[in-house]
Amino acid sequence: MDNASYATLTRQSGLMREMQIIANNVANAATTGFRAEGVLFSEHIQSLGPATESLSMGTAKVPHTLAQQGSLSQTGGAFDLAIEGDGFFLIETPAGQRLTRAGAFTTNEIGNLVTMRGDAVLDAGGAPVFIPQGTGTVGISADGTISAGGAPVGQIGLFMPADPDQMRREGGVLFNPEGGITPNPTGRMLQGFLEEANVNPVLEISRMIAVQRAYELGQSFLDKEDARIRGVIEAIR
């Protein structure tokens, strides 16, 4: 196989990866707190000698999470929370601490604030958030301070990844902050709201069409290159 075929195959592989990411974005367009993803293409250039042109090959292996704010939907739920601006909720999962923008919470049998999967929501100090039972209306202010019966009882934490480039997606709305986390004092919480996915379905479908056409063009080149090589082999025999 010659250099042109290798370069085209790496391009096809990258386009396939981008198509998978676009399809995942479209599938999660109605998922609360979902953040759309893109893919970063990189170019690798290799010198082939002083009298030969260099070989350039592209790859697409680095996913990129889009940080645009999703629209906010009012639910009126006492434990439904949306983040306006930067920041993530910190939750404790069986695999460790994870970040999320999905704020559909509830309380469990012992009064801890949890996700719908039962993972504990953590406060500014990294401890589970406890909601006293039977103390009246629960209010949550913009900085995450929780009041029950008019008295403050805790504060939900907002965090940012210390290194956004090391934040890895796990599942639909969970992120593993492999580079660590830092407190985020700038984000605001809105009680009774949920953040919708920041996916633009029209834009994603347009991207899907463009990627599909690019993939078909690359496949057409590979088919013609295969026919050319077969013709050369037949002519040599």
Search tags:
single chain; 237 residues; alpha+beta; 2 domains; 5-stranded antiparallel β-sheet; 3-stranded antiparallel β-sheet; 18 strands
> How many domain units?
2
How much of the sequence lies in strands comes to 25-35%
Uncertain stretches: none
**Helical percent range?**
25-40%
Mean pLDDT reading = 88
Structural class determined from secondary elements:
alpha+beta
Tell me what the structure shows:
There is one protein chain. This protein is α+β, with helices and mostly antiparallel strands and 237 residues long. It has 2 domains: 3-65 and 208-236, no CATH class; 72-195, no CATH class. Helices cover 26% and strands 33% of the residues. It contains 2 helices and 18 strands. It has helices at 3-27, 201-236; strands at 37-46, 55-65, 72-74, 81-84, 89-93, 96-100, 105-107, 113-115, 120-121, 138-140, 145-148, 151-155, 159-161, 167-170, 174-177, 181-183, 188-191, 193-195. A hairpin with a 2-residue loop joins strand 11 (145-148) and strand 12. Helix 1 (3-27) packs antiparallel against helix 2 (201-236). The protein is elongated, with a radius of gyration of 24 Å.
